[in-house]
Amino acid sequence: MTDGPVTTARSPRDLALLCLRFGLGILFLRAGWAKVSSLAGIIGLWQRLHLPAPHVFGPVHAVVEFGGAILLLAGGLTRVTAFLLAVDMVGALLLVKIHTPATFIGVEWLALWMSLALLVTGAGGYSLDARFRRGRSPAGSR
After folding, report:
1. String of b and e for 41-76 (b: at least 16 CB within 10 Å)?
2. What is the pTM of this model?
């Protein structure tokens, strides 16, 4: 092992994280678009669940999913986004899916675990997060 300059070489781990981000991003892009394009529907869901301020938090919920998907695909603010999406999935599981036992084991669990994995690991080398991190560090100059 040598003490050489820090490289920005990408690893198989970075490729795996890119695939994880893309998978979760596509899932939330689809789900988020359904909510953003039908705000009345998401507000109605929040009203039926007796959740607070449905006219405020329903649209926030939609933006978290759709905007989060875009951020995941780009690899920007990945840990923050992953945290918000994990909280979103815990809410979905505890507030909605728990009332439908036949569908309790579903995509929400997968999205929760994928979000938690990205929360712990970050975006990886193929991301805006890595690009901005390299831009700030002295070793990241080209």
Report:
1. ebbebbeeeeeeebeeebbebbebbbbbbebbbbbb
2. 0.85
